[in-house]
Amino acid sequence: MIKVHGALARITRNFGWLYTSHSFSFGGYFDPGNTEFGPLRVFNDDRVQPLKGFDFHKHEEMEIVTVVLRGELQHEDTLGNKTVTRAGEVQRMTAGTGIEHSETNPSASEEVELLQLWFTPNEEGLTPSYEQAAYDLDSRKNEWVPVVTGRPGESAAGDGVKPARIHQGLTLYLAELEPGQALTFSQKPGRRMYVFVIEGSATADGAYKLSRRDAARITEQEQLDLHTETGARLMLIDLP
Question: Which end of the chain is more exposed for a tag (fewer CB within 10 A), N or C?
Fold first, then answer.
């Protein structure tokens, strides 16, 4: 079963320094019918203005994944990490028993655009940790590239780059699909798929049209076919 959630159906908020769209209940937005999809709890599409960001704040018992689409994001935490994540990189933070961190745009002239996802971990009481990983979609067009995974044996074979590891039985893939190309994804029975169109447009299973920033939540099917006429940058999450 495929259920499309259009980009315009998201809750969008403009704070001046932050323009954000929530795909699930978050902050001041609460919809009891839209709080999760499997272990996926938060999917925020953010744009942060130059020299602005989130001051130090605390998280517990959550796996937080950030994919930078454009610009730079500076991360600092109470573990002593101070890093900058750029387009083509992803960061994973295990909040575990508790961690404080800040996320800011270090540029004086360019906004940063990012996707931030929160997942419940497969166990509580984990030691907090932080990790970054890089990927190159330009050299691996028209294929699913795993960038974050918690599943044994999953790797970005062929380019020597390992995906970030997460404490949950999921894999987050990205793909750069050229015009006229198609991709198929197969998974075991009883799992879920979450598809998000970062850029471009695509058609799922020949019937469901997905435009920029649209999402699809897929259950009760083991294979999904995606085709694009114009080209698309896609995210697919294989979820328990």
Answer: N
- DSSP annotation of 7 reads G
At residue 21, the 3 state secondary structure works out as: strand
Element (H, E) at 202: strand 202-204
Distance of CA 186 to the CA centre of its chain: 19
Cα 36 from Cα 125, distance rounded (Å): 21
Q: Tell me the CA distances in angstroms from 20 to 16, 42, 112, 114, 239, one per residue in order.
A: 10, 12, 12, 10, 24
Exposed e or buried b per residue across 105-141, where buried means at least 16 C-beta atoms within 10 angstroms of its C-beta: bebeeebbbbbbbbbbbeeeebebbbbbbebebeebe
Q: For residue 121, how far is the Cα from the chain centroid? A: 15
Rounded Cα distance between 153 and 51, Å, is: 40
Tens digit of each residue's pLDDT (9 = 90 or more) over 115-140: 999 999 999 999 999 999 999 999 99
Q: Which two tokens stand for residue 22?
A: 């929530």
Closest CA to 176 of 135, 118, 223, 121: 135
The pLDDT tens digits for 139-198 are: 999 999 999 999 876 665 445 568 999 999 999 999 999 999 999 999 999 999 999 999
